[in-house]
From TrEMBL:
<feature type="region of interest" description="Disordered">
    <location>
        <begin position="322"/>
        <end position="392"/>
    </location>
</feature>
<dbReference type="InterPro" id="IPR028564">
    <property type="entry name" value="MT_TRM10-typ"/>
</dbReference>
<keyword id="KW-0808">Transferase</keyword>
<keyword id="KW-0949">S-adenosyl-L-methionine</keyword>
<dbReference type="GO" id="GO:0000049">
    <property type="term" value="F:tRNA binding"/>
</dbReference>
<feature type="compositionally biased region" description="Acidic residues">
    <location>
        <begin position="331"/>
        <end position="362"/>
    </location>
</feature>
<protein>
    <recommendedName>
        <fullName>tRNA (guanine(9)-N1)-methyltransferase</fullName>
        <ecNumber>2.1.1.221</ecNumber>
    </recommendedName>
</protein>
<keyword id="KW-0489">Methyltransferase</keyword>
<feature type="compositionally biased region" description="Low complexity">
    <location>
        <begin position="1"/>
        <end position="26"/>
    </location>
</feature>
<feature type="compositionally biased region" description="Basic and acidic residues">
    <location>
        <begin position="381"/>
        <end position="392"/>
    </location>
</feature>
<dbReference type="InterPro" id="IPR007356">
    <property type="entry name" value="tRNA_m1G_MeTrfase_euk"/>
</dbReference>
<feature type="compositionally biased region" description="Basic residues">
    <location>
        <begin position="52"/>
        <end position="66"/>
    </location>
</feature>
<dbReference type="GO" id="GO:0052905">
    <property type="term" value="F:tRNA (guanosine(9)-N1)-methyltransferase activity"/>
</dbReference>
<feature type="region of interest" description="Disordered">
    <location>
        <begin position="1"/>
        <end position="71"/>
    </location>
</feature>
<feature type="domain" description="SAM-dependent MTase TRM10-type">
    <location>
        <begin position="84"/>
        <end position="325"/>
    </location>
</feature>
<dbReference type="InterPro" id="IPR038459">
    <property type="entry name" value="MT_TRM10-typ_sf"/>
</dbReference>
<dbReference type="GO" id="GO:0002939">
    <property type="term" value="P:tRNA N1-guanine methylation"/>
</dbReference>
Amino acid sequence: MGTPQEEAQIATTTTITSSSAPTTAPANPPMSKNALKRLRKQEEWEAGKDDRRKRRKEKRHERKTRARSERAALIAQGVDPQDLQKKKTPSTLVPVGIVIDCDFEEYMMDKERVSLSSQVTRAYSDNKQARYRAHLWVAGFNKGIAKRFNEVLGAQHKKWKGIWFDDGDFLSCAAKVREKMNAADGSGGEMIESLQRSLDEKPAWTRDETDPFPLPDPEPPLDEANKDVVYLSSDSPYTLERLEPNTCYIVGGLVDKNREKGLCYRRAREKGIRTAKLPIGQFMVMQSRQVLATNHVVEIMLKWLECGDWGQAFLSVIPKRKGGRLRGEEAGEDAGEGEAEASEAEEEEQDEEEKEAGEAEASESKAQDPPQAEAATDVGDANKAEQVEETS
Ligand SMILES: C[S@@+](CC[C@H](N)C(=O)[O-])C[C@H]1O[C@@H](n2cnc3c(N)ncnc32)[C@H](O)[C@@H]1O
């Protein structure tokens, strides 16, 4: 077997030859423009691996050298070294639930399931390290994903704190989160500024004029018993204004390269559950679609809890390759510009997302400050197991 490039070359050559002999079917069907492009990207990604590792190492080294000389300068000025010890900002539990709905296994390919498990790991790590952490649950934890965590990843997740894995569906998890958030002993979490503001200025719940994913049946009535549950979906005609206390947000645990458009939206609507999309369009001008990876959506919510500002949250989480800029900072660009190219670019983006979810954790965990090491270590170990699986 040759390199992917050689194989692509063979495929192209076969097409030319077969056009002069129309009765014989080509041995290798020609590669589509998109497949060739993906192949090139894959090669570039692979070729850049060592460079990226080297750059990360250099950056870590620079960071440490800078910190050491800053510390030495302060001590030389008479600062007590004890005062320079980093103090961990404690993480505070807040009365907000985040449920990752993993009940979509049949819609994913093997490598997408692997990617999803990395994303769940990442979400756990982000929540654990966040200034304000949510009640984090994984619903539909049965079948392949549970098997992977238990067998391939060495059941590390059983030692994780602050996350619950449940084999029930997202609504049964939401009921358990509700119980925990409303616990009479006050253990459900602390009311913080961003959430208090949502109570003071109750956010509007308005429907867009144009429906991004019109469905033929009329919208069913709201399930009153679950009115504190919001299923997040980029296909929803509603836009999330603020996160609200004592509310459970469901994020689809799905890696599908957007093949299954509207899947989560339909699931929520059928059950009379509120849906909402993140207000990306109000804050950002994007060069590609506004469908984000599961762990990024979780991270955005955690950032919002901390700063109460969607623009800041999007800017710090949405990957740079999505070409997002804050509105008002774009240089004479049309809001919709670039979206036409989205479908072509989307598959590539999501491929990169999958790779990053697996690759970035290990390097980040090495660069963690000591107070964050606990989360980083178990995530790092889980990630090592992921890499073993991917290469075997
Ligand atoms: C990769 S997306 C899955 C896309 C899938 N086709 C679907 O039906 O939603 C993973 C999940 O992240 C959340 N998500 C992604 N982008 C979002 C957005 N712009 N607004 C709200 N939720 C979003 C949704 O919960 C979604 O199910």
